[in-house]
Amino acid sequence: MKNENKLKYEKYIMNISMIGSVLFMIAEGVMAFWTRSHSILMDCIFDLTDLIMIGPFLLLVPLLYKPVTERRPYGFAQVESLFVVIKYSVLLAITVRLVWDNFYAILHGGREVDGGKIAVFELIVCACCLIVYMLLHYFSRRYASMTIQAEIYIWKLDVISSLGVSLAFFVEQFLQKTTWNHLAAYIDPIVAIIMSCLLLVEPVKMIIHNVKSLILFAPDQEIMDSIRQIAEHHMDKIHYDIEFLDVIQTGRKTWVEIYLTSHNRIINTKILLQLRNDIRAELQQVFDQVYVELIPSLPDE
């Protein structure tokens, strides 16, 4: 798919996600204020954090498709990684604070909320999130960048978390009618803590991954092995060997530099060009924007 089409699909998908986030954020904010529920507040903050980052990112998207230059050897790819780090760092800080607030609430008798209203509201939210998720999943079949995949993951998480919260507050309504009714006040803080802990996993993983990208660390060993295997598959046909493999990933861009040697110490530039094209064509099936350079390894003497 051409970059123009990729840009079109990405902006279209991000706009759908942004509109959905705005509507849900407003609804959850009003409901959190009305019911004093921290479970709904957690959802609202998650959507707000996502929304704050979508706006500026929509302005950044066209820049991610500009070619690299001598002034910007990595283009704007690192800006995308920086955006992700900031987004998830803010979410992480807020989540940790909410966990503490809800632990405090548990230690002081829980929190009384209208569980019936919350259960019905979250069930409606779950259905609406599922619609948005299916829309994003449908349009992403043509093209899905790292950012689009992150947005789809967030909506999928919204579906699961909303359903879980709804079921938890239906249980709270059941407890109200039993001898265990004194436990009902603990449902909201407990659900909020569980949601927070589940939401902590993804921010930590994404922060670590994108910090590595920012400081240009090599990707995970699994990615390195995959690239090496693809390169060796094509190089074995013409009796070339990999002397050293250098891979850099930042944002959606991947740079692959392969230092190679020839069995007969003769490098044919025509063969080298075809080899690079073959390796790049196969890597493009795995990576979004990949750059491949083959560099003959020269002896020290």
Q: Can you characterise this structure?
A:
By secondary structure, the protein is mainly alpha-helical. The protein contains 8 helices and 3 strands, in the order H-H-H-H-H-H-H-E-E-H-E. The protein has helices spanning 3-35, 38-60, 77-107, 115-139, 146-176, 187-214, 221-235, 269-283; strands spanning 240-250, 253-262, 289-296. Helix 8 links the parallel strand 2 (253-262) and strand 3. The longest helix is centred in the N-terminal third of the chain and has 33 residues, at 3-35. The model has no long low-confidence stretch (mean pLDDT 79).
Sheet with the most strands, sense and barrel status: 3 strands, mixed
Q: SSE order in H/E notation?
A: HHHHHHHEEHE
Fraction of residues in helices?
Answer: 55-70%
End-to-end C-alpha gap: 45 Å
Total beta-strand segments = 3
- Overall, the morphology is elongated
Mind telling me the C-alpha Rg? Answer: 25 Å
Count of alpha/pi helices: 8
Average pLDDT confidence is 79
Which percent band covers the strand fraction? 5-15%
Low-confidence stretches: none
Structural class: mainly alpha
Biggest sheet, spatial arrangement of strands: 1-2-3
Layout of SSEs?
Elements: H1 3-35, H2 38-60, H3 77-107, H4 115-139, H5 146-176, H6 187-214, H7 221-235, E1 240-250, E2 253-262, H8 269-283, E3 289-296
Parallel strand pairs: 2-3
Antiparallel strand pairs: 1-2
Give structural attributes.
301 residues, mainly alpha, 8 helices, 3 strands
